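go over this chain:
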Amino acid sequence: MSTSASSTPSATPAPTPAPTSGGATTRMIAVLAHDRAPLVAALATAATTLLLLQLGSGHTPSSRRFAALPEFDVWIWVYAAEAGAAAALGIAALPAFLRLANAMGRSVTVRVVTMWPALGILMVFFGPRALDEHNPLWLGFARYTTINAATWAFITPCFAGLLLVHTRVAALTRETTTAVAQGTAGALVEELLWLRTAMQRFLTAFAAAITGGMLALGALRSAMLANGTPAGQLPVLRLLTYGGVFTATSALLFVPAYVAWQSSVSAMRDALHPVPVDGRPPHDWVEARADFDTLLDARSTAGRVLTAVFSVLAPLVGTVVTALFAAR
């Protein structure tokens, strides 16, 4: 949005900030942060998923029988909802990811982003199989491979964002002593506050998207059972193992980042309010440290611990719920 120039000749125009290398990133963040962007992405992705699963479903007799089942309708709607949610969550997390990427640089960002497709490739070739039976839907493998690849791409900012938080926190920890000595620690404190919020956002989005994927797998299992596939060929243990792998992935992403964040907060607090040499701190010192912990919300409460634990365990919990409802 442009502003009109002042009609007073003597008025001093506002200084124009010098262009920075992050200008394009800033504009992209502003666009993606629009309230309707996640909603539009969710609706478009869900509609595309439904079309991709429905079109041509009656091409063969076996595919036609499968598509006529009520369980098939449940599966495609759950799958579409999961894909749409992944798109919305990924778009919503993208501004925070871009801010971290701009701070950490291209090489670090590329390295953490490529870890996500690398994990996907390892899962495909060496990981556990959730459902190893042939999908009776015509071109079923090609269809859900395309959808899975799209949802995998959508939640890349959540996965890579947690890794970037860990890397950024480590960089801030190294800057703590210098910043405190120069009297510029305020900027680090503000960034630590923002990193905590971003970390929780990434974890929640990642866990929600993965949990939705587990529910979609459970719906597909129910549809295949209804189509006549023996239950022994679709053991629940496969789903539980698959959910357990992603639960472990969530824990490996979040726990190191959170521990590093707490360590950085502790280092900042000790640098700003060091323990007196005589070991007898005055009351003001105790209050100052307590106020610092309150500012950064660094103390672990029961509610916060339960929230983090539930977010980490959400994929496994979703798998268990799916297995219970789909039990035959």
Q: What stands out?
A: Residues 1-21 have pLDDT under 50 and may be disordered. DSSP finds eleven helices and no strands in the chain.
